[in-house]
Write a structure and sequence with these properties.
Oligomer: single chain
Organism: Triticum turgidum subsp. durum (Durum wheat)
Distance between the termini: 65 Å
Structural class: mainly beta
Number of helices: 4
Shape: elongated
Protein name: Disease resistance R13L4/SHOC-2-like LRR domain-containing protein
Radius of gyration: 21 Å
Order of helices and strands: EHEHHEEEEEEEHE
Keywords: Repeat
Pfam family, one: LRR_14
Helix content: under 10%
Number of strands: 10
Domain Disease resistance R13L4/SHOC-2-like LRR: 57-201
């Protein structure tokens, strides 16, 4: 039914470039291995200026200067196992994007102006092991509902304003400082799935109480994770932030 609007390239399809050059598509899904995809580069995709859904699980050749500017109609972008660092700075150009998944990519940061993506609802950074912190403007994504950030260490203050969030995976627990702490989870009353990391940073129950988990009537899944203080020898590691009395 969608043959005139969609291109789905899977294993065994060796004619991707020809199809991309001969027709305009609204949806692209390229899930074939690298040897079969040939010399597919970002320039080949940029000709598809009307595309609304882009799904790719292959290595696409990119060079400095490549951007997302031509994809002004994009609503869904799912890229896996590719070096998309060159594209990160132009992410904010995707004004209509609702769904952004950058899985197992080599990005180390998100653009500071990601807050301009006002319609973004889904952000998935699973497998992006080089990513450390989220930009301050992340708190401006008022329509965000799903956030997967298992490798993020710090979240900026103001996170409490994202009251539409339903699923939050990888929230790093902190008590104070310049970053988001557990008490900013208090107003997030729509949460259904919550995974908390680094709970060893919370030294008192009073801080945890500020998250108001007992008031989240929609919560159906809660995962609590503490980094182990034990080494391979079964002894407590040094410099783990515990007092002699706690040991």
């Amino acid at each position: 039914m969608t043959k005139d609007e969609a291109l789905v390239a899977q294993d065994g399809d060796n004619d991707i470039l020809t199809k991309l050059c001969s027709q305009k598509f609204l949806r692209l899904s390229i899930e074939t291995n690298r040897s079969q995809s040939g010399d597919l580069d970002w320039t080949s995709l940029q000709a598809q200026q009307s595309v609304r859904t882009l799904i790719s699980t292959i290595q696409i050749k990119m060079k400095p200067g490549d951007s997302l500017v031509t994809f002004s109609s994009l609503r869904v972008q799912y890229i896996e196992a590719a070096d998309v660092a060159a594209l990160v700075e132009s992410l904010h150009q995707l004004k209509h994007l609702r769904y952004l998944a950058l899985l197992e990519t080599h990005i180390s940061v998100l653009p500071g102006n990601i807050g301009k993506m006002k319609l973004l609802q889904f952000l998935d950074l699973r497998g992006c092991t080089k990513s450390v912190n989220l930009p301050d403007s992340i708190v401006m994504l008022s329509q965000l509902q799903f956030l997967y950030i298992p490798n993020i260490h710090m979240i900026p203050r103001g996170f409490r304003g994202l009251t539409d969030i339903r699923k939050l995976i990888g929230f790093p627990a902190h008590m104070d400082g310049d970053w988001c702490s557990l008490d900013e989870l208090g107003p997030l009353s729509q949460l259904k799935n919550l995974f908390l990391n680094k709970l060893e940073n919370v030294s008192a129950a009073s801080f945890a109480a500020n998250a108001r988990l007992g008031e989240k009537m929609h919560l159906i899944e809660l995962f609590l994770w503490c980094t182990s203080r034990l080494g391979d020898n079964g002894l407590i590691k040094e410099n783990q932030g515990v007092s002699e009395e706690e040991q």
